[in-house]
Structures are given as structure tokens and as C-alpha cells.
Amino acid sequence: MIDFVAIEQALVLLFSSLTPWLVVVPGILIGLVFGAIPGLQISMAMAIFLPMTLYMDFMQAMLFLTAIFTGGSFGSGVPAILMNIPGTSSAIATAFDGYPMARKGEHNQALGIALGASAFGVLIGYLILFVLIKPISGLVLKLGPAEMFAVILWGMTLIASLRGDYMLKGLIAGFAGLLVGTIGFSEAGVLRGTMGSEYLLDGVPVIPAMMGMFAASELLRLVNTDYLVENEAARKVNMKLLMQGFRQAFRYPVVLLRGSVIGVFIGAVPGVGSSVSNLLSYIETKRRDKNPESFGEGNPKGVVASEAANSTSEAGSMATLLALGIPGGGATAVMLAAFAMHNITGGPQFIREQTDVVYAIIFANFGQVVLLMGLALLFLPILANVVKVPMSYLIPSVLSLAVFGSFGLTGNMSGPITVLVFAVIGWLFRRYNYSVPAAVIGILLGSMAESSLLHSYQISGGELGYILERPITLFILALLFLSLFGSKMMAMLQRRSQQEETTV
Amino acid sequence: MKFEKRMLADLLVVLGLAGFVVWYLLEAWGASGKTENLILILPISVITLVLCALELFQQLRQGVTQEHQNREAVSSVLPVMALFAGYVIALEWLGFDLATVIFVAAFLALQGERRAPWLVGYSVCFGMLVALFFSNMLPYPMPMSLLPTDY
Does this complex have an ipTM over 0.90? Predict the structure, then answer.
């Protein structure tokens, strides 16, 4: 499984000169900045700086782009914690507990925890990739549209059932979101639900909708608040607390490991990857915890679970890219463009013939983790000062940033209008206890769910028995069933056995 | 079944969601009744409508709860929402730079900021700097009033 000769060659490639490493520090900083500013995407950063890689050799180009990826993956969690704006869909679950922690004055710890879990996630993710790149790529090849649909359904249903008291409302929000996600041109070429607007031809812009529902709606709810953190003493930016948070992440090794494994394997599924992995990890952690009610109220384990999973997803998506040449999302699509610019094609042949380069990319990421930790610790205290800004200044500033960012994502007025519309919907959903995350995930995965289902239908010729021939689909559906009803069934069985004992 | 005026907003939200689902289903059906078009929309719409009916029934059965009584008034949120809507609508007309300056200043004034140097200084500095940053970072032209643009 491991080619030791290639390892030696990879080390020579990386350490024979300092040149490849010169681009790593700027890469991480670019990623951190783009990830931390709402509306600027990691893929956008990579696309903007892609032309620079023309002047680099392939190894250096890969180090530069993966450094942006690594910095951005962590950076997107920062606004999720401080402002409830997940920089990307992979940081949605980070906001669930990170933001309540920040509001309680535990912003330093939350940022430290996110950094610790992210660093561990990248490290363990690439370690798994190093050992299992060939089996993972083989597994990804076995995933068809039926499996993709099952994964989407799993993520969707679980997120909708997160708030146990309002499960019905959560499911309604999730399914309504799924329908909104299918607006626009379908894969069959049919136009639906656009109300004649050309802005909706490609569907509802997802990231602006997410910004509206998560951030803008929350800010509208906070208009009567003076500060993000009410307690003045807790508003301090404290390096000691940040480091304490960093160490705290490692107090939950099971959560970290579970998140990492989920991250690598779900992250390898093209398109779905990191958007679902952070949610699945969060939900599994909540479900298995002795005190599930504390999640969503600022439980550090929630931040650990999400950040560990979304960071390892990077390694998962790299596995698909390197081994199959399939990009899992925007960021890896830009990397694929960099491959093409250097006349390299990812795939089984690439892995077989250039194992040393693959290993070098993996090892370089180990080094990037160390640099990320150092740079983030310098960068975070500056960002954490956001809690000291009065809400009367913070609200219009963040709303404006969201509007600018949404325009940046769509290139026309559909972005800002989407933010506005979904800010109002999000505010209504929060007020009347409908799950905002479920609706967002629905919108995010709607068109993908429809495509996967349509492809499965076309492959199977409409035969339902097709599912029975897909063991991985059955396995995922069984997991879905167990995740939803497992604990209830166990409780029922326990009650029944207790009743029987009493009768005897 | 109990109904009180305080429950009206909750019921309207469920009915609004159900209304959207019915409208979208009919719209999609009208566009094409083929399986390829309705493969996801039809089952999800039916499930959502059933869930909406259950939710409606549950709300009517429960009547007014503690939650209805604890809910905050909307009077402070509505002006902010209207201001934000005005800002977004005015963007194309006023330009991102000027609209942002006015929005931030108006918001600060609405929230009770009376120190003119802060009100004007912050809104102008923030609005212009952010507009300058994004107009240089983004690959497409943005509507602007004061800053140069190709829009």
C-alpha cells in the first residue's frame, strides 16, 4: 500500500531546496483572509491567484494552492464563530455552537478549539490519504448517483431532525429548501419557478441565500442588543484563553477522530463532500453525547466535530482529484485547472507513475499544518476584536459586507436581492422555530439531489429493485434509519425488557 | 381545537409554506408533466404538504403556549428590515459606494448615534473603503456613484 522508494523521492522533492516552501506562507495568509471575509470564497482566491502558478513548477503550484485551501478551510470558520456567517457551506455546523460560545464571551476558546480541531483534521486527513489513497479512490469509483442521493438524503434528514422539539418544522423547512434548490433549469431542460426572472435561470444563488438566512436574519434579530457579548469583562481578546481553547480541542479525541474519518470518506464524494461531512459529524457527536440538549447552546464538542470533519474533507476531495481526476468542488476544480496548466492529468495512472509527487503534496500538507497554527495564532487575536464593536456599528457593516460579497459571487444584482429575501425568510424561520440550517442544506443540495435521483432512474430504467443491487446505497440508507430511529428503538427495547422483568 | 389571535402568525407561516409548495408543484407540473421533471418535486411536495397539515393540526390542538407569550415585539425589527430593503433596492441606482454610506449612516442614526463626526466619519470611511476593496478585487464592474466604474 505504501511505496517507500516514492517516500524517499518525495522528501527529496520537498526538502532539497527551500523554493517550494516560499509560497506556502503567502498561500495560507491568502486563504485565511479570503475564508474569513464573508462573500470571498476559497475557490475565488484560488482562481484569482491561479495565473501566478504559471510561473511556478508543478510542485510549487500545488503547495501554493493547497496552502490557500488549508488556510481558507480554517478561515471560513472564523466568521461562523464570530458573526454566525459560515464563510463556506463546510463551516455551517461550526456556527451552531461556535457562535453561541462567542455570545457567551467564550470567543477566544471557540477560535482556539476551531484551530486545534482544524489542524488535527488536516493532519489526520492527509495521514489517512497517505495510507489509503488507492482504496479510497477505488471506493469513490463505486459510488453512483444512487449512493449520492442516499448521502444527500441522510445529511438532509439528520439536519432537519437536529432540534428534537421542532422536528416537524425542521423537516418542513428542509423539504421546502430542497424544492427551492430545484428552481431554474432542470437537467431535463425544463424551466421551473423562475417567475419570469432571468436571475433565476440557474436557480437561487445558494451562497447569498445562505448569507441571508444565517447572517442577515440573525443580525436583524440582534438589533436591540448592544454588543455581541453582553458581559463587558468577557469581551477581552486573550491569547491565553485562545491557547486554552486550542488544547481543549484535544480533550475530545473520540469526537476528533470520528469527525476526521467522516470527513475523509464523505469529503471524497464529489460535490457533496465537505458540505455534508461537517453536518454528519456534528449530528453524530450530538446523538452520541450524554447531554445532547447542550448542543446549539455553545458546546465545544460541536465546534470540534464540525472543524475536524471539514478540515479532513480537504484530504478526501484531494483523494478524488489525485486518484480520479474528478474535482469535488470549486477549490479542487481550480486545482484541476492548475493540473492542466502544467500538462498533468490526475487519475490512476498519475498515482501509479508519479507517486513521489502525490506523497510530496501529502507531506507538504503536514508542514502546512504547523505553519497554519503559527499564522492563525497571530491572526486570530486581531479578528477576535470584532466582539468589542458595538452592534449598532457591527450590524450595518456586516450587512453591507454580505451585500458586497453576494454581488461578488453572482456578478449581478441577484446576489444582494437574494440576501435580502432570504434575510426576511430566515428571520421568520428563527422567530417561528423552523430550522434555518435544514432549509439552507435543502437549498444547497436540491438540484444535486434531483440530478442524482434522475440519473438513478435513468440507469435503473425505473426498476426499484436496482437499489437492492447497490450494497453501499443500502448501507447508507440503513445508517440513515439507524441515525433517526436507533436511539428511540433502543429505548423502546429497554422499556419492553424492563416491563417483562417486572411482569416476571 | 383552540384558536386565538396570537396564534395567527404561526398558522400563517405554515400556510405560507404550504402555499409555496402547492404553487411550485403546479408551476413545475405546468412546465412539464414528465417523470424526469417531477421525479423529486412531486414526492417532496406531497411529503411537505402532509407535514404542513400535521403541523397545522398540532398547533391548533396545542393552542396558545408559553412561547407565544414570550415572543418579542417586531416593532424594533421592522424599520431595520425596511432600511435594509431600501439599501438593496437603491444599490443599482445610487451605486454601491453611496448607497452603503447612506445605509450605514441611516442605521447608526436609527440606533441612536448622535455624534456627527462618528456618524459621518464611520459611514464614509467604511462605505468608501469596502467599495474600493471589492471593486478592485472582483472581476466584474459594480455600479458606483463616486468611485470609477465600467458598469
Answer: yes
Residue contact A396–B39, C-beta within 8 A: no
CB contact at 8 A, A302 and A109: no
**What is the rounded average pLDDT of the residues A7-24?**
85
Asked if A210 contacts A444 with a C-beta cutoff of 8 angstroms, the reply is yes
Q: Identify the residue whose cell numbers are 444535486.
A: A448
- For A32-45, how does the pLDDT look when each residue is reduced to its tens digit (9 = 90+)? 888 877 656 677 67
Residue A266 to residue A322: CA distance in whole angstroms: 16
Which residue in this structure is represented by grid cell 419570469?
Answer: A196
DSSP for A411-457 reads SSTHHHHHHHHHHHHHHHHHHTT--HHHHHHHHHHHHHHHHHHHHHH
Residues in chain B: 151
Q: What are phi and psi of A481, to 5 degrees?
A: -60, -45
pTM across the whole model: 0.76
Selecting from A216, A221, A453 the residue whose C-beta is nearest the C-beta of B40 gives: A453
Average pLDDT over residues A489-499: 77
Domain positions in chain A:
21-469
**B40, B50, B103, B142: which to substitute to probe chain A, counting the most A Cβ within 10 Å?**
B40
* pLDDT tens digits along A410-445: 889 999 999 999 999 999 998 998 988 788 878 878
Best A40, A223, A443, A457 residue to mutate vs chain B (most B CBs within 10 Å): A223
Check if A140 contacts B (Cβ < 8 Å). no
CB count in 10 Å sphere of residue A287: 17
What are the grid coordinates assigned to A431, written together? Answer: 422567530
Q: Which chain B residues have a beta carbon less than 8 Å from that of A176?
A: 17, 20-21, 48
Q: What is d(CA A306, CA A280) in angstroms, rounded to the nearest whole number?
A: 8
**If DSSP states are collapsed to H, E and C, what string results for A377-416?**
HHHHHHHHHHHHCEHHHHHHHHHHHHHHHHHHHHCCCHHH
